[in-house]
Design a protein that fits this description.
Blueprint: H1 6-15, H2 24-37, H3 41-57, H4 65-69, H5 80-111, H6 117-123, E1 131-138, E2 141-147, E3 157-170, E4 179-187, E5 192-199, E6 203-217, H7 221-228, H8 237-243, E7 250-253, E8 258-264, E9 268-270, E10 274-277, E11 281-286, E12 289-294, E13 304-306, H9 322-329, H10 334-346, H11 352-361, H12 369-381, H13 387-392, H14 394-397
Antiparallel strand pairs: 1-2, 2-3, 3-6, 4-5, 5-6, 7-8, 7-13, 8-9, 10-11, 11-12
Helix pairs in contact: 1-5, 9-10, 9-11
Length: about 400
């Protein structure tokens, strides 16, 4: 039985269609800002409610419907008791969906132990927000190339090989460009089954196969640093090659082909083929096949991958000395701040006193709320938070 499903995702999303501010203090800030900016807050909130009203009425408990009908559910005039009940209803839906995702994770963690190490490596990190880059079908084998540049994996490109496919079900044919949202892997009597919920377009895809294998590749560290600096488009292939560690192995992987790179010269030399870079296009020839890429649309350096991982953010993992942690965590220097919070996260028991002092001093804002939620939940599970800190962040913990 599957845990993740399109129905479960849609229910979760509908329960979060209309978020509202949680406290009188939050509402006071919003109202004050609206007055300062000359905004008609009542009209904006009314419009937001109207946009989701019909969908919301399909999932809301009956006790909240009168407040939808009179337009007050997302207004500051909503009675506090109703506001708390509505927030509790949203939190309950969030908790239920978290339990679904946790169960899917446990199934996946169990199933991968029976698969190759490369597959285990892939599923050790999230596929969320990855995209399908290429789909190749060969009889009962499916090759799925997944680009994780927009996601959360250190691996830049993953090549899944679904072997001896026995069944495949989907409400929408999977296609290049679709986004991974949630996924689950299960062991079955005959092998394995994999389910993904995609977006753009929405789809629930399930495939059953005898076995699953994977290969994965990384971006060279030079690419990541150039991307972070916004310099990808302006970097020439020759300049980029000079920044590569030529002791590493490299591959040319495009939306159409994958081939090992033998050497770099004025251009790229690949096995079993050739590459020509003309004024405004790159031509890749492999045997009888020829593929052309418009260099005005894509920089060819984005086609180069390696099998060696180099952490471009290693400096953020350097621990901050305990005597400097409190000031560093509260500083305006981003790199120092990140290093400090990473240090606190790694050593919660040893640094409990500093953690509690820092959390009492931090001002919770919309910008840092997600970050604080992650850290506070981690520290809470470790059992090192003071009662005062727990009370301050109760909304994030619950």
């Amino acid at each position: 039985m599957w845990n993740i499903s399109k129905e479960a995702k849609e229910k979760f999303l509908k329960c979060n269609l209309l978020p509202i501010h949680e406290s009188d203090h939050d509402w006071e800030i919003v109202q004050r800002e609206a007055i300062e900016e000359g905004e008609d807050l009542h009209a904006r909130l009314k419009e937001e409610l109207e946009e989701v009203k019909m969908e919301l009425l399909n999932v809301l408990p009956d006790r909240f419907i009168p407040y939808v009908e009179n337009g007050s559910l997302n207004q500051p005039t909503l009675p506090r008791t109703v506001r708390e009940e509505y927030l509790q209803w949203i939190r309950k839906a969030d908790k239920e969906f978290e339990q679904i995702l946790d169960a899917a994770y446990e199934h996946t963690k169990h199933a991968v132990t029976y698969l190759p190490t490369a597959v285990q490596d892939v599923f050790a990190e999230s596929l969320h927000d990855s995209t399908i880059e290429r789909i190749v079908r060969e009889r009962d084998t499916l090759h799925l190339y997944v680009n994780t540049d927009g996601g959360f994996s250190s691996k830049a490109l993953i090549h899944f090989t679904f072997q001896n496919v026995m069944a495949e079900e989907t409400d929408e044919p999977i296609q290049v460009g679709q986004w991974f949202i949630y996924n689950e892997l299960q062991e079955t009597e005959d092998g394995f089954a994999f389910r993904v919920l995609f977006e753009y377009p929405d789809a629930e895809w399930t495939i059953a196969m005898k076995s699953l294998d994977a290969e994965y590749y990384y971006r060279p560290i030079a690419y990541t640093l150039l991307r972070d600096e916004g310099k990808i488009e302006e970097t020439s292939l020759s300049d980029y090659i000079e920044q590569l560690n030529l002791d590493h192995r490299y591959w040319l992987i495009t939306p159409d082909v994958k081939c090992a790179i033998k050497a770099f010269s004025e251009t790229i030399l690949v096995e079993n083929g050739k590459i020509e870079c003309r004024q405004d296009e790159m031509v890749v020839t492999l045997g009888d096949e020829c593929f052309t890429y418009n260099l005005e649309e894509i920089n060819p350096i984005s086609f180069i991958y390696t099998d060696v991982y180099e952490d471009p953010y290693a400096q953020f993992s350097e621990p901050v000395p305990p005597e400097e942690l409190e000031n560093a965590a509260l500083s305006d220097e981003l790199e120092l701040q990140v290093r400090a919070w990473n240090t606190l996260y790694a050593y919660p028991e040893e640094l409990a006193d500093i953690i509690n002092r820092v959390l009492m001093k931090v001002d919770r804002t919309e910008e840092n709320e997600m970050m604080l939620s992650i850290y506070v939940s981690h520290f809470y599970k470790k059992g090192i938070l003071s009662e005062a800190v727990i009370e301050k962040y109760r909304m994030l913990i619950e």
